[in-house]
Amino acid sequence: MPLRSTVGRRSFAGRVRTLLLYLALALGAALVVYPLLTVISGSSRSPVDLSEPGLIPRFIIDDDALYRKFVESLFNESVNTANIVYHSSLRTFADLQPPTPAALLVDEWLRFLQEVRPPPYAYTCGMVQAPITRTTPLLLRRFRDTLFRRFGGDLEALNLALGTDFVEWNALFVVPEDYYTRRRMPSGTGYLQAFWEFKERQPPGLCFAAAVEGFYKTLFLKTRYSRDIERYNRIHHTSYRSYDEIRLPVQYPRLLTPAERTDWEEFVRHTLNVLWIRVTPDARNEYHAYLKARYGDIAALNRAYGTSYTDFAQVPLLETPPFSGRRLEDWSDFISGWMDPDTGRLYLAPVESLRLWTLEDRFRRYLRRRFGTVKELNRCLGTSFADFSRIIPPQQQLHYRWFLRHRTLLRREFLTRNIRTVLDYVLVRGRAIRNTAIYCLLAVLGALVVNPLAAYALSRYRPASTYRWLLFMMLTMAFPPVVTQIPLFLLLRNLGLLNTFAALVLPGIAHGYSVFLLKGFFDSLPRELYESAALDGAGEWRMFRHITLALSGPILAVIALQAFTVAYTNFMFALLICQDPRMWTLMVWLYQLQQQSGQPVIYAALLVAAVPTLLVFLLCQRVILRGIIIPTEQ
Question: Is the whole-model pTM more than 0.90?
Fold first, then answer.
């Protein structure tokens, strides 16, 4: 029978009430769906769009927003790195705009890279780290997969071959290569060599070359004189309109102002990594005098270097310094200056002998050799440079070209990478999925066996103390679960059940409310069914199984859903009772992930955690709705 008659719904007041009813239902549905959409949207965010309003991330429909997100991921969420490579002054990635295309200049840059073949430390690939989002970017996943296939999934073999000590595949990481200052040098380990082999196979659009000149302007001059070019001009007696006009000379700039020459020498001697510094042969005598003063005799130097020189004059100037060792230390001290503690004399490379090896300068030399004059270059490439010194490598245009060709791939990557991070975490770490599946299965089976048996006994035989038992079981619900955790812990510890599935399942296997609910449902079943079954010779177990349980499908589905939800979402009790990581459940592992992740990954973890509960509810809802008003005999 409908709640409202057909005639009543045709009146004006009835239609208004119907409209209000549907509006209320729509509002209720929106209040339920909105948080889910917020979580789905938040799971694909990153710092550049984390504060953007709306349930649909802009990068899905806006190419400019997708481009900013791509560049942020390419430079490992570091604005400083992007400013260095692009020679820009971005404050955040949200300020980034697509560049003006320069296809011919990009082609020249690619030809230059093929010709020069820069050393591995002179360029790197992006998308290997996300220190703010703390997710697993695209190329880091690819690098892990490459090593996994190379060593056949044997982590111990990887550690032995590459000199690492990773405890699990999910723990493999890559530190972005940043060899601008002397604090950072390539490690020279097998793991770094494996990464260098990996990045050689990556497309140029996902790599970027080191920009020493960009580093000089972005993190040396701007840090020293602030971003205000006027302050720089006052101190240096110059008239630059912006830092973009400043160039880094490859040798001592005698034609610049004294303050600029001081900046150049300070930068080269004490800040810049020696990987980018060369010393001309005319400094050989000073270098030999420095070594003799430092070691005294050639035998001491040979012991330190592992060489067999017979005289200091045989020690050559270094073209490219080693990555570590005493030779590197001596070379660095020769460039920055070393004072003899005995004589007080300062030994250092003459400033006129210092030269810089940068890809910016090499690229300009390549263009000058290829086109001769800047006028010819502008005519052939369609550019408008005033001179060769104004040319910077078109890395931003190269990245933008790759972006335009792979927008679909990038959208899919940003939509799913945080979810992939969560799945990789819970599938690889420990036995989270296995433990959770066993725990939930035992909890559901226990709830469907113990609670119906207790309720059946109370309903079928009606003992005199029935209501006292029901009152006792209902009273257990008056106390929050946290109150009973310490007594339960002590009891399980005394029984020797800690770190077992029994400790997880037994304390909650009987639930007072479930017994109360089942007894009320069993009481509503006709008694004549049991009398007829008894006359036909059926025993209690047969009547319980074929009559009671057969007619109790909806209520049993409710009990099973409740037991699954309690077991699946159990965190505090599961962590207290099972402190061994081998027994941790999914909720415990997700909590550990959230402690070391950013907000988007947390949203993705919530989304992944909600999926099993939603699937179980969808499976149970048909059983719950079927016969929920009047049970029918099966």
Answer: no
